[in-house]
Design goal:
single chain; alpha/beta; Rossmann fold; 2 domains; 5-stranded parallel β-sheet; 4-stranded parallel β-sheet; Leu-bd; Peripla_BP_I
């Protein structure tokens, strides 16, 4: 969602930020993209298989649960981009053959559940997708009962586990990246200011988990309603909580105009952001953030920008136009499945999509950088740590090329 308003050159006062929040919360739209017609994928003859096992001499069927069927042109274009990327990954796999069959979910949990049942009945050995967490929650028990793993395109860790994995960048992941760097610099006292909603609570849990993993300590937690009235009403309390705790790092999960408005109260109530390290769990790549003095110097984490650019160029050369932001996740999921199949053929493993294979600590190389799955269904991604400046964001620490080595 683009930030609405220019905000001026000297930073935003709480009053001006309130006006931006009014528009920022209401004016979230996606530009119209011409949708390619979604042709049904050809259905190959079903090969008799045992769930979780495969025949090395036959193509391995993978189901893609894409959000086709909403009737909205922009959403259909998003679904098409997801499928395009998944099929691009199939083309790139060498040493294994994947039969990718697409099923529409209509962004509806019941439709997604029905799609999962049909996919399993059709012989799918893995499910890629769906996108939305409510649909993942509907699909997970059906897939688990058939011993079929789900590589969802969601970033909501609340639906992960018991055979379902999330590929989206999570709050836990972005917090871990920032807190790792903070710990290396001797900054271990962490304060958290989060929105009082589901997204904020997921962020809170993610930061707490990341703190345990990085040896840092959450010393203060405060929240606020994400509204034009709720933020100023809570601001003095959440700033005081950070100041009195002696937090050296302050993490915020809000985004866009909400983040600008909420953070503008930090210096207003006595927390000089030059004295602490501010961390945003949302990306701050928009140039508008550079104009906000409170956010200058703030850290944020993103997938490797250079790899993302290479993927965009590759996608555009094949399909024309840029991929949707979710397309890279679909590519990564199918590419990971291909890597597991190639390895299984080399080792004569009859169960290439076992939990052990999916959760390999070596991880996988994707178009967004390296990534791996954890036993609880979460994802760890090799992210680039960025910093807001008064011009364009700069790299604090590059994405790791492998796990265990930050900035390699």
């Amino acid at each position: 969602m683009p930030l609405i308003a220019s905000f001026g050159q000297r930073g935003m006062t709480p009053a001006l930020a309130a006006l931006a929040l009014t528009f920022g919360l209401a004016a979230c739209s996606v530009p119209s993209v011409p949708s390619q017609s979604a042709q049904p994928a050809p259905v190959a003859p079903v090969v008799e298989t045992v769930p979780g096992q495969f025949n090395a001499s036959a193509p391995v069927r993978i189901a893609l649960l894409a959000p086709y069927g909403t009737g909205d042109a922009d959403r259909e274009a998003r679904a098409q981009s997801i499928e395009n990327a998944a099929r691009l990954a199939v083309r790139d796999i060498q040493g294994a053959t994947i039969d990718l069959v697409t099923y529409g979910t209509a962004e509806n949990p019941e439709t997604a559940a029905d799609a999962a049942r049909r996919a399993i009945a059709d012989g799918a050995q893995m499910i890629v997708g769906p996108v939305f967490s409510s649909s993942v929650a509907a699909v997970q028990p059906i897939a688990a009962a058939a011993n079929i793993p789900v590589l969802s395109l969601s970033n909501n860790t609340e639906v992960a586990g018991n055979g379902a994995y999330v590929l989206g960048v999570t709050f836990e992941d972005t917090a871990r990246r920032a807190l790792t760097e903070a710990a290396e610099r001797g900054l271990r006292r962490v304060g958290l200011i989060h929105t009082d909603d589901l997204e904020g609570r997921v962020a809170r849990d993610g930061v707490r988990a990341a703190a345990v993993q990085t040896g840092t300590q959450v010393v203060a937690t405060a929240s606020y309603p994400r509204s034009q009235q709720g933020i100023p009403a809570s601001a003095e309390a959440y700033v005081n909580a950070m100041v009195s705790s002696g937090a050296e790092v302050v993490v915020m999960n809000d985004r866009d105009a909400g983040l600008v408005y909420a953070s503008s109260f930090l210096p207003f109530y006595g927390l000089d952001t030059r004295d602490i390290q501010l961390v945003s769990l949302a990306p701050l790549e928009n140039d508008a953030f550079a104009r906000e003095r409170t956010l200058r110097g703030a850290w944020f984490s993103v997938p490797d920008p250079e790899l993302e650019e290479l993927f965009t160029l590759r996608y555009s050369s094949v399909y024309g136009g840029e991929p949707h932001s979710l397309a890279g996740l679909a590519y990564d999921a199918v590419a990971a499945a291909g890597a597991m199949l190639v390895d299984a053929q080399q080792t004569q493993d009859a169960t290439p999509f076992s939990a052990e294979d999916i959760q390999t600590p070596l991880g996988f190389a994707g178009v967004n950088g390296v990534f791996r799955f954890t036993p609880n269904g979460h994802i760890e991604r090799g992210l680039t740590l960025m910093r807001v400046t008064d011009t364009t964001p700069e790299v604090v620490s590059p994405a790791p090329g492998r796990f265990g080595v930050i900035g390699s």
